[in-house]
Design a protein that fits this description.
Blueprint lengths: L3 E2 L1 E3 L18 H14 L3 E4 L1 E2 L5 E2 L2 H12 L5 E4 L9 H11 L3 E5 L3 E3 L3 E3 L3 H13 L3 E6 L2 H13 L7 E6 L9 H8 L7 E6 L4 H10 L3 E4 L6 E3 L2 E2 L3 H14 L3 E2 L2 H8 L5
Parallel strand pairs: 1-16, 2-3, 2-13, 3-6, 6-7, 7-10, 10-11, 11-12, 12-13
Antiparallel strand pairs: 4-5, 8-9, 14-15
The structure holds zinc ion.
Zinc ion binds next to loops.
């Protein structure tokens, strides 16, 4: 059980809008400024999605390049770039920014699923094979995102095939419509499936954010906060900023007698190579 807890901030995501929360950062400048404040508050990792000029999710390498440069000029936070966020993007577009920018971490969504009861989140076997190879070739550590139990078994398959390497770092995303619900028993069930020596983090979507945050801390995991997952600080109270979520997570980590990981700690815990 790690005594240092990695707090990841996911400031934007692909879906929330300024109507959901006016403080949501959308442009490269807004995201960089927001991530800087979250780093000052104690976040060690930033999981980034980009938006186009109309505010829609995009895999534009230009937006990633611009945002990554702005953040790197301000702080040493570990960057975790998404490989999803535009359901229409081609497989090549979902990987192009990884090859160019070589982030330390990137998301590896370990299976397909129905998404939001209206579309399909495609992560075909061929794509997962290709994505895993691209990440290995570029020394990018996959953050293996798990939305359902079968995705853990998928990860074991890719581990056996040598596409993923041990120790795997998992991110359990619970409560996404179409995925496994956000409950503590579900989190415990998933933890029972992963290989010994894996590292893991968990989050609950929307109203289930806090129970999963507390459970992840109690069970020895790392945590993720931010407006990608939840725009409310409390019931019917919109968050003032992403940093406000990070500040709460820092307080909870300390209350449970652990220490928020610095970016350097996170690099050591996760064995990152691209810094
Ligand atoms: Zn994401």
């Amino acid at each position: 059980m790690s005594e240092k807890v990695i707090i990841t901030v996911a400031p934007t995501g692909a879906w929330p809008s300024k109507v959901d929360n006016a403080a949501l950062p959308l442009t490269p400048e807004e995201i960089a400024e927001d991530v800087f404040h979250c780093w000052q508050a104690g976040a060690a990792v930033a999981h980034l999605h980009m938006r186009d000029d109309q505010g829609r999710g995009t895999m534009s390498a230009d937006k990633f390049r611009e945002t990554v440069a702005l953040i790197k000029a301000k702080c040493d936070i570990v960057l975790n770039l998404t490989t999803s966020g535009d359901l229409e993007a081609t497989e090549e577009t979902r990987m192009a920014h990884l090859v160019e920018l070589k982030p330390e971490l990137a998301s590896y969504d370990c299976g397909s699923m129905n998404w939001g009861h209206n579309s399909v989140f495609h992560n075909t076997p061929q794509f997962l094979d290709k994505l895993g190879r691209v990440m290995r070739e570029n020394d990018i550590k996959p953050e293996v995102e798990i939305f359902d139990g079968g995705m853990v078994y998928n990860s074991l398959y890719y581990l056996k095939k040598g596409i993923l390497e041990a120790p795997i770092h998992y991110q359990f995303v619970l409560g996404a419509p179409g995925g496994l619900g956000a409950s503590v028993p579900n989190l415990v069930f998933l933890l029972g499936l992963i290989p010994e020596g894996s590292t893991w983090s968990a989050l609950g979507v929307g109203k289930d954010h806090l129970p999963i945050l507390y459970a992840a801390l109690a069970l020895g995991g790392h945590v993720r906060v931010g407006m990608e997952d939840n725009v409310f600080y409390a019931k019917e109270v919109p968050a003032q900023s992403n940093a406000q979520f990070v500040e709460r997570a820092v307080r909870l980590v300390k209350e449970i007698n652990k220490t928020p990981a610095t970016p350097a700690d996170a690099r050591a815990i996760l064995g990152l190579k691209n810094h």
